[in-house]
């Protein structure tokens, strides 16, 4: 009962009526969702909000999770976001077409170098972000039973140096505790 109430409150508090990165940086969904890619990005880059920065490089994500745990939906779930790029996981490639993208936002205005340093530190990611991301993942797993725990992955796992040697992705970073996130998701599924 407590889990259901927490989930309902979470969904009510984080309801987003207007999707902000919809048509130009996303495509219609053609396949079922099979997983979730966890990313990280700075809230601001050179005084530019992350949303504006992502638009400038023609990238999008389904959700942002802010440092205080507030979730903002950026692309509706009936559309593919452009978040994983060149990516592979368990025989699947181009994960944009069947993986939901969640960006964990790192507090502050950071250069890329500062951002890379911050994501190596566990204290960069807040308890509120872990809690909200776990509830969000649980909600997605409930809504889309084709998403399994094994397919909740870090961007670095699906687009790292072995897959993208010329442009590897390191997010969400060494400081992000994927085991902690998955244990919180398991709590809701129990």
Number of domains: 1
Overall average residue pLDDT: 88
- Could you give a short account of the major beta sheet? 6 strands, mixed
Percent of residues in helical segments?
Answer: 25-40%
Beta-strand content: 15-25%
The CATH topology comes to: Lysozyme-like
How many E-type strands?
A: 10
Report the order of strands and helices: HEEEHEEEEEEHHEHH
Oligomer: single chain
The CATH architecture term is 3-Layer(aba) Sandwich
Number of helical elements: 6
Please state the structural category: alpha/beta
Q: Judging from the principal axes of the Cα atoms, what is the shape?
A: globular
Rounded to the nearest angstrom, the radius of gyration is 15 Å
Describe the protein.
The structure is a single chain. The protein is α/β, with parallel strands linked by helices and 190 residues long. The protein has a single domain, classed as Peptidoglycan recognition protein-like (Lysozyme-like), CATH 3.40.80.10. Helices cover 32% and strands 23% of the residues. The strands form 3 sheets. Strands 2, 3, 4, 5, 9 and 10 form a 6-stranded mixed β-sheet that branches. It has a two-stranded antiparallel ribbon with strand order 1-6. A two-stranded antiparallel sheet has the order 7-8.
Please give the structural blueprint:
Elements: H1 2-13, E1 26-28, E2 35-45, E3 48-49, H2 50-56, E4 63-65, E5 71-73, E6 79-81, E7 88-89, E8 92-93, E9 99-109, H3 112-118, H4 127-143, E10 152-154, H5 155-159, H6 178-189
Parallel strand pairs: 2-9, 2-10, 4-9
Antiparallel strand pairs: 1-6, 2-3, 4-5, 7-8
């Amino acid at each position: 009962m407590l889990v259901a109430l927490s989930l309902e409150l979470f969904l009510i508090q984080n309801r987003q009526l207007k999707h902000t990165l919809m048509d130009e940086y996303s495509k219609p969904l053609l396949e079922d969702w099979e997983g979730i890619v966890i990313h990280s990005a700075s809230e601001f880059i050179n005084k530019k909000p992350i949303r504006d920065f992502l638009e400038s490089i023609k990238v999008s994500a389904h959700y942002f999770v802010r440092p205080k745990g507030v979730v903002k939906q950026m692309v509706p779930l009936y559309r593919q976001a452009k978040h994983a790029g060149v990516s592979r996981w368990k025989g699947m490639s181009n994960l944009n077409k069947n993986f939901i993208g969640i960006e964990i936002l790192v507090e502050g205005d950071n250069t890329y170098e500062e951002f890379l340093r911050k994501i190596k530190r566990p204290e960069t990611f807040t308890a509120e972000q872990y809690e909200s991301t776990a509830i969000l993942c649980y909600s997605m797993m409930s809504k889309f039973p084709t998403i399994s725990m094994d397919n909740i992955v870090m961007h670095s796992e699906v687009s790292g140096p072995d897959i993208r040697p010329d442009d590897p992705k390191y997010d969400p970073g060494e400081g992000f505790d994927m085991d902690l996130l998955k244990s919180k998701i398991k709590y809701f599924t129990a």
